[in-house]
Design a protein that fits this description.
61% helix; 3 helices; mainly alpha
Length: 111
Amino acid sequence: MKFTTRMGLAGVLGASALALAACGDSNDASDEVVAEDVEVVADDAMDGVADEPIEDDSAMPEAPPPAPASEGPTAEERAEADREKMQSDAEAAEAAAADIQAELDNMKTEN
């Protein structure tokens, strides 16, 4: 019992020490950086540039003309095509079910 109490106390003390150590000095780089330091470096990099920016027309090609609207199927034609597809799918499913049933019947008669 004394051992577990001592270990618990050691654990609490260790956790407290780590918590206090975490509250120490900040290592955040933004604390040391001043805006003037950054601006000086940026200004030095631009010393050799004397020209003002100009627009480059060749950088952006003209947009292609819009494609003409194609004459596609109407809503009624699409609906009819969907109905026909569903009908053929249903017929295929019925045929597959009939084949499966025939196979099951064949298996029953063999056993």
